[in-house]
Amino acid sequence: MMRDTLLFYSAFDDPIAWRSALQAELPDLDVRIHPDIGDPEAVNYALVWKPPQGFFAGFRNLKLVTNLGAGIDSLVGRDDLPPVPISRLSDPGMVALMASYVLFAVIRYARDIPAFEQAQRRHEWRYIHPRALSAVKVGVLGLGELGAPAALALARAGFDVRGWARSPKDLPGVACVSGRAALDGFLADNEIIVVMLPLTPETDGLLGARELALLPAGAKLINVSRGAVVDETAMIDGLRSGRLGGATLDVFAVEPLPRDHVLWGMENVLITPHLASITVPEAAARDVAESIRRVRVGQPPLHRTDPARGY
Ligand code: NDP
Predict the structure, then answer these.
(1) Ligand 1 centroid to 148 CA: how many Å?
(2) Which of 57, 65, 252, 271 has its CA 20 to 30 A from that of 35?
(3) CB of 146 closer than 6 A to ligand 1?
(4) Residue 194 and residue 224: Cα distance in Å, rounded?
């Protein structure tokens, strides 16, 4: 019997760590690291992160494509995808890292930490009376595999949490609304907004000048999904005027954020270099291997996703 073969492609992840993590799960798996492909006809599985256009042409025996991350925006709207199940990664480590980042960013605002950081630079003892966490309204846009656990973690921490998604949700302690018609009211009603939406044709530029103007004066924005979901120019205008009180940004329209970008120098902006959550090969390889086992016996893979739908 021929060995199953997996092709690994990523400019960001460590292929050797992934090969050993996958072979610890599936010792018979032949893991090939792009561009060392060998015979393309032998490739059954692809584990890819941001493959270039046309990448999939020539792999005629693929049975499964796994996106090496949560956001599948690089697989959306392309015509070279094979007609096989597409899955994504979602492991508990990734979910926990994302929730920890969101908790940190929200707590930092709720406890006025940016004001204390500024006061410290002036050697100034600036007392700001703390508010009860239950008085702080936090809105989470996107309640998926990462968004829902983050919203629940915020609710458990004591915040007044609201969530918005495409379809209705039932999350304990989180007041959920859904659909485009509910968005304006949602934005107007929350002082901290956490963006956890995938980048799709519907969400591209979703938070534009009009939407940002709906937020209460001084509201804070936390974006951990994709830069293009927020209109960067409108956001910068809002931050400059103070209408938007602050932003915590892990993702940007252009990454890496260019050295001369205006956001770097803004006092009310915290920048991190796209690492709110990452996948650790040892944990995620278990799911990739399980998906391969399932596809081998004709079952759907774990965390199946649909690039035609956008996520
Ligand atoms: P999911 O695909 O599991 O969930 C997406 C959520 O967004 C769902 O609740 C969905 O609603 C909602 N949604 C999608 N489109 C719309 C729309 N048009 N209107 C309203 N709601 C919508 O994604 P994850 O939670 O796993 O991840 C979210 C994003 O986080 C990823 O796409 C990725 O871009 C980003 N990410 C960032 C990382 C980082 O380090 N900064 C790391 C990992 C991911 P419904 O449930 O009703 O379908």
Answers:
(1) 9
(2) 252
(3) yes
(4) 8
Q: What is the pLDDT of residues 232-248, one digit of tens each?
A: 999 999 999 999 999 99
Task: Out of 87, 91, 104, 146, give the residue to mutate to test ligand 1, the one with the largest number of ligand atoms within 8 Å of its CB.
Answer: 146
Order of strands across the sheet that contains 45-48: 30-33, 5-9, 45-48, 64-67, 86-88, 304-305
Q: Return the pLDDT at 2.
A: 64
168 CA closest ligand 1 atom index: 47
- Is 213 buried (19+), middle (13-18) or exposed (0-12) by CB count in 10 A? middle
Cα–Cα distances in angstroms (integers) from residue 93 to residues 89, 145, 284, 288, 300, in the given order: 11, 12, 8, 14, 23
Give me the domains of the chain, ranges plus CATH numbers.
Answer: 5-91+279-296 (3.40.50.720), 93-271 (3.40.50.720)
Whether the pTM exceeds 0.85: the reply is yes
Residue 261 designated active-site: no
Average pLDDT taken over every residue of the chain: 96
| Confidence grade of residue 91 (pLDDT, cut at 50, 70, 90) | confident
E strands present in the chain: 5-9, 30-33, 45-48, 64-67, 86-88, 137-141, 160-165, 174-178, 192-195, 219-223, 244-249, 269-271, 304-305
Out of 274, 286, 293, 296, the active site residue is: 274
Q: What are phi and psi of 262, to 5 degrees?
A: -60, -30
Are residues 217 and 190 in contact, defined by beta-carbon separation less than 8 angstroms? Answer: no
pLDDT digits (tens, 9 = 90+) for 103-117: 999 999 999 999 999
